[in-house]
Design a protein that fits this description.
about 180 residues, alpha/beta, nine-stranded mixed sheet, 2 helices, about 15% helix, elongated
């Protein structure tokens, strides 16, 4: 039992270091992410939200959480600035972190840790069994299977798919071919 706890602690520590280093590495801006977070339209805001199920949340109306969103299935938030923790997390935008079995967001600036992680635009890192970033990726992915279309980061996993990788499909480590050409 102690050995399993030690192993899990080491794996968690490595994941945190990975997320932190990829977030620092990916400090260049992504226009879409910044535009999403610079949206000046007034949104109902709360420092805490608990969501048991879609459309069953307290408080019910906020679309922006600046703090922590906690629940079973976190769904319906427009923006999370802080932490999104639950069994399944599906906000529109995240600046901070998501911890869950299933994480999905359109824009991510920070990190995702879960079994399955999805996003369209990422500035940061993903740690999970399956990680997918559909559009722009600046940062890293650590998992068994990693997929990315337009990446400016590194993938570490058993199998890595990167459309602009030095090889499109490569085991263990993959990186963009632009790293090798000036």
């Amino acid at each position: 039992m102690t050995r399993k706890i030690f192993t899990a602690s080491i794996a968690t520590f490595i994941g945190i270091i990975f997320l932190t280093s990829t977030s620092i590495f990916a400090s260049s801006t992504i226009t879409e992410v910044n535009a999403q977070f610079k949206d000046t339209t007034a949104q109902p805001n709360t420092p805490f939200r608990f969501c048991l199920w879609p459309n069953t949340a307290w408080p019910k109306t906020p679309q922006e959480v600046t703090g922590i969103s906690l629940g079973v299935i976190n769904f319906g938030d427009k923006k999370i600035v802080g932490a999104d923790i639950g069994i399944a997390n599906m906000p529109q935008s995240v600046r901070g972190g998501q911890v869950s079995f299933y994480n999905k967001s359109l824009y991510l600036e920070g990190g995702q840790a879960g079994i399955v992680n999805f996003n369209n635009t990422m500035l940061g890192g993903q740690v999970g069994i399956y990680n997918k970033s559909d559009d722009v990726t600046r940062g890293g992915q650590l998992g068994i299977v990693n997929t990315s279309k337009n990446s400016q980061g590194i993938q570490i996993g058993i199998i890595n798919f990167m459309d602009n990788g030095f090889v499109k499909v490569f085991p263990f480590v993959n990186m963009p071919k632009s790293w090798f050409h000036e």
